[in-house]
């Protein structure tokens, strides 16, 4: 594994999870390896409830991902999807311009803390629009009408505009302090429980009721089984 990848993934304070610094100026393969690495470490430690992604500014010219092969893009998209499926609470802390890889990852996370200078921009590649999966997630999270002005006309979204849209949860003058508080608060939730809730949300907008009912009933069954085990345990204590 690339030595830079190992250095970029660190344990969060008090052993509450892992933190990855994502530098948008890095080559695509390095970014893919870094994201894959933090996912692997989170999956190996079920007791760690949080994965924090510190998202550094993209290139000023917004170019993403550069001259790469489609196989590299596919591996990147699979790594991003892996974040979206983690059995852990995921927190993003974007700084400044949020585009390219930072935008892809931001849209997969459960809780988002932005700096006051946050600006969300869609990426371009060689001055042409880059049709990555960020567009799919923006439409899914904002709806077609809200996403249209960003996707069609390339308008940027500031931190103040992002909060009511639900793209950012809070704006923090001191992101590190806000991050610590958020991880402690969110750490009270089970990573597996968060994964179930997230999956139900992701599937709701694209799945017909007849197909979704099975997934929801399975989730209800798991909860009822958990409740039965808890009551049985109390009866024996």
TrEMBL record:
It comes from the Bacteria. Coiled coil: none annotated. InterPro entries: ClpP/crotonase-like_dom_sf, Enoyl-CoA_hydra/iso, Enoyl-CoA_hydratase-like. One of its GO terms (biological process) is fatty acid beta-oxidation. GO terms for molecular function: catalytic activity. This is Enoyl-CoA hydratase. It comes from Streptomyces poonensis.
